[in-house]
Amino acid sequence: CRSGNVTRIGGILPVPTYLFSYKEFGSMVLMVCLILMLCLEPIIHCLGSDNKKLFYPHCKDAKQIKDAYSVIAAVAMLLYWLLLTDLTVFSMRISAFLLVIGRV
Question: Which pLDDT tens digit goes with each residue over 19-38?
């Protein structure tokens, strides 16, 4: 971190302080999942195969990584949904505030 706000875990491992917020930690884990999904994308692995079809995800190279890709995609969707759930709570608070202001 540029500002130097780090917390040392066990006195050894420096971890940025903002990662102790569940939103920021969830966003970081989601980013890692999306990068892993890009690395394991079956369509990218099939680009160099003998298929004549473009964007064909069912080649021999992709069969080896399809299970890992599916698990990481499910985790990424779950994290995205959890982060959006927090946004809906914020939206509900704004709606309640506007309802109260409208009544006054």
Answer: 888 888 999 999 999 999 99
